[in-house]
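REQUEST FORM: STRUCTURE PREDICTION
Request ID: SP-0412
Submitted by: Lab K.M.
Chain count: 1
Length (residues): 217
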Amino acid sequence: MSEAINAKGSVQDWIPKDPGKKPPRYVPKHMATIRLEQKSNKQAWKTMGPAKLELPSPSNYLKKNFLKQLLPLHVPPNPIKRAVIQTADAHKQLLQSAGLIPKYIVKKDYGEIPKYLQQRREAEQQVRDDQEKLEKLKQATRQVSEEERNAALEGLKKKWHEVHREYQGLPFILYTPSQKGRKVHMEEQLTELEKHIRLLEKFKTIYISDADAGGSP
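STATUS: Completed
RESULT:
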């Protein structure tokens, strides 16, 4: 039975080495030519693209007004300028500048009522309506005489004293809702009577309508 040989390490250990010498570096044969070519290309490609592009041909362009030259020449006719003789020495003036041509008929608002006239009509109509209302109001009202005013004033004061006397007769503490409601009603009556009394005392001339005159006092 043969004995097995156990080799330690790797295959590289079996290769003889010379630690004193290094293998020579590889240098291309045409190194000078390569460097010269790289330098020339580097100078040309410093921009985002090639520095030199093919220029367009002078024949590949659209001439100015090329389409207009193909279309037929259109010359508008010269309009006839009509004039009018105004004086004995044959002084002429164009109809348009003399105001003899109705140019106003071509306006957008031709035939419509101007705004200032519409506003004036509305203002006049408002004045007429106010006058009619005032006349109707005068016809439906009449002036209260001095005797009627004094009688009404005395009646209001008498009514105020009666309500005030009843108001003072209320108990100091109100227990029921009816008592509280009566107190509120009396306070409203006193306020309304005081308002009418001040009105009659302040104004000497008073007008009332026929409906108010025929109503209950």
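NOTES: The chain has a mean pLDDT of 75.
Reviewed by: T.R.
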